[in-house]
Amino acid sequence: MATTRIGLDQLPPAARAAVEEHTGPLLAVEESTEGFNSEIAARVTSATGTWHIKGLRTDHPRAWTQHREATIAPFLTNLAPALRWIVETAGWDLLGFEALDGHHADYAPGSPGLPEVATLLRRLGETPCPGIELRHAEQRLEHYAARPDDLHYFAGTHLLHTDLNNTNILVNAHAPQGDQARLVDWAWATRGAAWLDAAYWTIWLITAGHTPAAAEHWAAEIPAWRTAPPEGITAFAAANANIWSDISNADPDPWTLRLATAADAWHAHRRTG
What we know:
Layout lengths: L12 H11 L2 E6 L8 E7 L2 E9 L5 H10 L10 E7 L2 E7 L4 E2 L9 H12 L9 E2 H4 L17 E3 L8 E3 L9 E3 L6 E3 L3 H12 L4 H8 L3 H4 L3 H21 L3 H19 L1
Parallel strand pairs: 7-11
Antiparallel strand pairs: 1-2, 2-3, 3-5, 4-5, 6-9, 8-11, 9-10
């Protein structure tokens, strides 16, 4: 469920002052309309720089997502915007990230950004999983797998993002080719099988208009996908069909219904070949 967004000017004065200890007096604030999890999301500019701020009240049910992002940020060089500062005061937890230029990734067939996303996911696959507390993929999927025996396919030791929504990938076409994309929103970082992020991407590609076969063609750009057990991929497709069925039944808006339709289409493709 989406979190209600508020403006930076609605922060307690002590929290705003603590932010400005890092930034200096703010000259411009551009509130973000993207994302679902943060109460505060804004791009701010002062005389000394520009940052992206995201935040939640410290008593918010998802306050743990702020701590997860702060903990994992040091391990995400060349994958994600750098975390520059943390403010926790006056009942608020606020993270100040490097502000990135660029646009949300376009997953549509023929998009020139698709190779950059594939390159980014290859880089992620080569990144060691840090020794911090993370959920395990088999735990997250245990209530959705078609059979309990399927869960072993999802277990592993690799760092995963798991939320490959195109709005979580920023592409800067002015950066060097092969280094244009970055992943944001690491709240759902997970430890699991190396091929799972390519599988999560597949569902979003189908949602964007790819056929299941074409989406899997892009997934095959990720080396771990090419060595994944086919029956494991099919088991993952079945689990995600169940996930998006539950989500769309509980919250049947156009966005969730599109994901449920895509997940069903992929599962049917995996069953029939």
